[in-house]
Amino acid sequence: MDLINKIKENAKKHDMRIVLPEGTEIRTLTAANQIIEENLARIILIGNPQTINQLAKDNGLLSIDKAIILDPISHEKKDEYIDLLVDIRKSKGLSREDASKLVEDPLYLAVLMIKAGDADGEVAGADNATGDVLRPAFQIVKTLPGISVVSGAFIMILKDKEFGEDGLMVFADCAVHPNPTAKELAEIAVATGHTTRAIAGFEPKIAMLSFSTKGSAKHEMVDKVVEATKIAKEMAPDMMIDGEMQSDAAIIPAIGQSKAPGSKIAGHANVLVFPTLETGNIAYKLVQRLAHAEAIGPVLQGMAAPINDLSRGCSVSDIVNLVAITANQAAGMKK
Ligand code: ACO
C-alpha cells in the first residue's frame, strides 16, 4: 500500500473532527464531500449555510448534508468564543469590540473551535495566503511545550527509489519561518524527526544542510548550522542527526564517505533540514518540478494543535490528503 493510502486507512480509524473554514470554496467543498464519502474524518464547514447548500446542490455534492455547517456571523457559541479570544489575547490589549469582529473571520473561528475543544484539527489555505492562515493559529493555539517555532515539512515522494527511504524523503522548513536562529533550526530538525516517524512512518536520518561539509567552508551561516546540529543532538539524543553537510554529501554515499568519513548520515540521509526558508522552499519546488516528485504538505509541526495550510494552487486531492494527514496528527496528539 502506498504512503497516502496508509495515511487514509489510519485516518478512517480515528474519526477526527476537521474544520474547513473555507466552506464556500468549491475545491474545499468537493474535497469535503469526498472525505465524508470515504469516512476519512467528520467535517465542519464554516460559511453561509445557504451558499454552501446551494453550491453543494449545484455540483451534485450530496454527502455535504452530513457535514456540520457553521455560520460565522450567527451561531450559538459566538459569545463563548469572543470571551475565549479576549482572554487569550488580553496581554496584547485586544478589546472585546475587536474580538467580536475577529470571531466572524472563519480563519479565527476555526482556531477558536479547536482551542475550545469543538474541533480536532483544521485545514485551510485554498483561498487564503499562508500568513493569514497561520497568524490566528500562532496567536491562539501557540506552540508545543519546549518548542518556540512552527515550521512546515514536505514528504517528498521521489520517482527514484534509490534516495531516502525507498524514494521517500522529508524536507523542512519549506513553508514558515524565514530565518531561524541556531536554536530554532535545532527545534525544526527535531520536530521534523517526529513528523517523519508519525506521518512518513520511517526512522529519520537527519542531515543539517549547508554549503559546507564538516568545516570545508568558514562563514557565520555555516556556524549557525554547526551550532544547530549540536543543540539538536542534545535535544533528541535518540535521533540520528548530523551536519553541517552539503546536499550531495547528504544523499550520495560515495560523496558522503569522502566528505564526511565516519558519518552514519552522510550519503544516507532521508530527512533534509535546510538552513533558511528560502533554501527549503526553493529546493522542494525544484525537486517537485524537475524530478517530478510528489510533494505532500506542508505538514505544520511544532504547533500545539494540528492546523495545516494548503497552497492556493491546490487540487481537490491535495485537500483530501492534507485532511487525512491532519486527522492522523490530531489522533497522535490526543494520545
Ligand atoms: N512559530 C511560532 N510562532 C510564530 C512564528 C513561528 N514560526 N512566527 C510568528 N509567530 C508568532 C509571533 O510570536 C506572534 O505571536 P504573538 O502575537 O502572540 O506575540 C504572532 O505569531 C504574530 O507574529 P508576527 O511576527 O506579527 O507574525 P507575522 O504575521 O508577521 O508573520 C508569518 C508570521 C506569517 C508566518 C511569517 O513568518 C511569514 O509570512 N512566513 C512565510 C510564510 C510563507 O509565505 N511561506 C511560503 C509559502 S508556503 C509554500 O510555498 C508551501
Structure description:
The chain is built from 13 helices and eleven strands. The chain has 335 residues and is of the alpha/beta class. The chain folds into two domains: 3-142 and 305-334, Rossmann fold; 151-296, Rossmann fold. A six-stranded mixed beta sheet has the order 8-7-9-6-5-10, with helices on both faces. Strands 3-2-1-4-11 form a five-stranded parallel beta sheet, sandwiched between helices. Helix 2 (26-37) packs across helix 13 and helix 8 packs across helix 9 (220-235). It is globular. The two termini are 25 Å apart.
Write the layout of secondary structure elements.
Elements (H helix, E strand, L loop, with lengths): L2 H12 L2 E4 L5 H12 L4 E5 L2 H10 L9 E3 L7 H12 L6 H7 L3 H10 L5 E4 L5 H11 L10 E7 L10 E5 L9 H19 L4 E5 L10 H16 L4 E6 L1 H5 L1 H7 L11 E3 L3 H14 L3 E8 L5 E3 L6 H19 L1
Helix pairs in contact: 1-13, 2-13, 4-5, 6-7, 8-9
Which key phrases capture this entry?
46% helix, binds acetyl coenzyme *A, Rossmann fold, six-stranded mixed β-sheet, 11 strands, globular, 335 residues
List how many beta strands DSSP finds.
Answer: 11
Distance between the termini: 25 Å
**What is the CA-based Rg, rounded?**
21 Å
Mean pLDDT: 95
Largest sheet: 6 strands, mixed
Summarize this structure briefly:
With 335 residues, this protein is α/β, with parallel strands linked by helices. It contains 13 helices and 11 strands.
